[in-house]
Amino acid sequence: MRTFLHAGLLLTALIAPAAAEAATLSFQVRGPGGQPLPGAVVTVEVAGGAAAPVRGPYVMEQRDIQFQPHVLIVPVGASVSFPNRDRVRHHVYSFSRPKRLDLPLYGRDETHSVTFDQPGVVALGCNIHDAMSAFVFVTATPFVAQSGADGRVTLAQVPAGSATVRVWHPSIRARGNSMAQAFTVTAADLASTLTVR
Amino acid sequence: MRLQGFGRLRTRLLVLYAGLFAAALISLAAVAQTIIRQNAEEMVRAELAANGSVYDRLWALRTRSLKTSAAMLARDFGFRDAVASADEPTIRSALTNVRKRAGATEAFMVDMDGGASGTPGALADAVAAVPFALENGRSDAVVCVEGAAYRLVLSPIMAPMQIGWVVFAVKLDGAEMDMLERLSAIPLRATIVQRTAAGWRAADDHEIGGEEIDRLIEQSTHRRAMATLNLSSGRAFATAKPLAGVGPEPVAAILIRYPLIDALAPYRSLQIGIALAGLIGLLLVVLASRRLAQSIARPIAALDAAARALEEGTHSRVEVEGRDEIGRLAASFNRMADGIQDRENRISHLAFHDTLTGLPNRAYFRQALDQAIASGERNRHQVAVLCLDLDRFKDVNDTLGHPVGDALLQQLGRRLTGLSPDGMVARLGGDEFAIILSGQVDVDRPRALAQAIMDAMRQPLDADQHQIAGDVSIGIAVAPNDGSDADALMKSADLALYRAKQDGRGVFRFFEPELDAAARRRRQVELDLRDAIRLGHFELHYQPVLDLKNNRVGALEALLRWRHPERGLVLPSDFIGIAEDSGLIIAIGEWVLHEACREARRWPAHVRVAVNVSPLQFRNSGFPAIVMQALAASGLPPERLEIEITESVFLEGEEAVVALLHRLRSMGIRIALDDFGTGYSSLSYLRGFPFDKIKIDRSFVTDVARDAGSAAIVRAIVHLAKALGMDITAEGVEDAAQLSRLRGEGCDNIQGYLFSRPVSSSEVDALIGTRMEDAA
């Protein structure tokens, strides 16, 4: 049964004239009820686009028995450190296909570093604290952003050409918690609404 | 037919009380039964409701337990690792492991793509779809696969995002229900029913099904409902727990039943107890009623019996118990019975005692004698009876009056009682007394007593201020020799008394067999007399009375002769006494009158016929009529009939006799006074009635020629008669000296052998023709 995996990405485009060969794309992500969906990661993959540069440092702290940040967007090949700021020990793991990791019990101010060399969403959990959850969003494209409180995302300098816009959010009931929509980036800026299911 | 026992008060009371109580008991038992049943049903409902809740909790507990197990697996790091890495063998082994531990029938892992790991099959296929079809928030459901119901419990596998579900499937079969049943406090039956096209059915219990159950489950979807099922195994209360399928609609339900028979089982002992208590109560009431009925009925029965005894003449009293109505009734009854007894005693005293002397009367005496004889027979004792008769008592009555006579009898009674303390003195009637000597009496005692009485009687009795010398005659008879029963003994004693009187009064005589023989002879004579009257064995002989003045036969005295067929000619002296005693004298006298008149009719007119009339005959009220008939039948003129009476006729009262004589005289009949000069001769008779003729007794005539005294008396009588204008006849003239003397004294008529003996009627005619001179 894959019914909810067929969910389509409703793309309402408002094409505006932009600079040649590049455009600024702005999206508003809305949930199934039409409300703005904050925290959603929107990526635009452009055919033949350059890989995202690794800058660093990428840190996924464990503080107050929480991962910090909840979603960490890193480029492929980035090395992420997992410093423990809590007094308790944590056991961070991930069974996600892009990066399986298992950082056995480590204590305060102990840091593990993990290199994410495959694109994809790596769901992090702590084997001790079930409530701890975080995602490392490993992206190959540099055009990536997370929606703010108003659900808005703005991507600049996106080269024209055929592209795929992809929305990821843990609440999306679809395979990989993401929905994708192919579209063409023109020189004109684009403002669009992405409604997920 | 009426039951005899029911006629008794006691039985009726018993039946009434016991019946009422039994009815009350039965009503109570019925009410109790109803209450018990209602109570049981209410209790069953309450228990069923409570147990329904318990079942819900058990169900929830089981669900939680399964969920916990499922969650534990879902959270296991290794399992999650295996699931995340799609390590199928590891997943399967982990599922198998935890399934056994959790007690689930099957365990599956369903991944986010809808693939199910675990034992493949229809169940696995069904399970794979469940997580996606299940409503939000639900983590369990019931599915029916291939006719079996399964409870599914889901637990998500989080890593930390959901990567699949652990699904436990528990088959809802008999074993699972048994577990539930065991956990219940009351004997419930739990059955799984499934929704089918035809309604709700149990897979393994064909009894279950029908509208009742459909309705029950439908109602139970919204709230707890209860119903009474009429199953083939009996009535049962039931409640149902619908089990939701994947959707909100139930696809199966747990039917919880409580058979009424089980519900009522705890009351069985109560019911038995009530029945037992009722029976014991009934028994007690029967016993108590019996006692009460007896206490009421017994005195009444006693009264009944006493009244019946009283009715039969037995004196009876009732024991008086208590002071209630029955007690008062008994007391009244006793007073009544005493009163009756008193009156009876008085009456029987009157019946058995002589009022004058207070002595036992003849009836009492008879009874006492019977008893004495019977007792004497048994004990070989003698019983003596003394019969007493006061001599000449009649004279006392006649001369001194009845009050004196009564006083005399009283005195005599007292004297006799005083003399015989060992005997019973009774007054049999008149001047007749009798004494019974019985028991251990000396052989000489009767004689001694008789002698003592004789001696005592020498002292005159003091009767009403008169000193009266009363001689008694006593006849004694002794049983068993003189008579074996009261009648015979009395007869013997009477005969002895008769003999004593014959022997000159004032003596006592023992009975002797000869007396009895004499009595028997008298009886035979009496019988023969009757025959004689009937067969005409009597004849009249005639003795002439010579008229000295006319020197011819002036009259003929008719004299009765009995020509007995065996004994020949019998003289009157041998049978007149018996004829008088037996009353036959009336009939004989009548015959004599008729015959004499008939004969006299053919005689010459100057010849009269003289007929002797006994006092008994004379006193007979029909006598004048007999005389009239005799005269009328013969045609004899009345003046030719001469009735001869003796002075003894006057003993019964002068006036009536005189009146009768006058009556006869007025008819023309002549009256002669016979045997004058003997007996109670009283000159007053001569003054009281003018006889036509006086006959001088032969005792004076016999000595008239030799004895101057006799001659003087004859002379005086003749003078007296002539002075009174009466004729004189001298009887018994046997020789010429007597005749000449009598003639000298002035006597008119003579009668005797000198002239003629009595002759038969055939010789009369010749006799009338003869003269005195011829005869002499």
TrEMBL record, chain A:
It comes from Sphingomonas jejuensis. InterPro entries: Carb-bd-like_fold, Cupredoxin. Keywords: Signal. The keyword Signal applies. This is Plastocyanin. Transmembrane segments: none annotated. The keyword Glycoprotein does not apply. Residues 1-22 form the signal peptide.
